[in-house]
Fold this sequence. Notes:
By secondary structure, the protein is mostly helical. It has one domain (2-59). It contains two helices and no strands.
Amino acid sequence: MKRIIAYVIGAALIVLGAIALFGAFEDFRAGGTTDRLAQEFLAPISLFIVGGFAIWMGRQTGRRG
């Protein structure tokens, strides 16, 4: 059950990161400022990393008992 919860949370974070990345590209095409672009690309990348880590931790739960 823990593994399924980890997959759901990880997938949700990755999907949320994809949506945020889409918004960052929209602002990039509209000609946003450099500071704003840096912040908008940082959030999706962080969500991808945390989502992947959640999935990885879920895979580890089966091995540790």
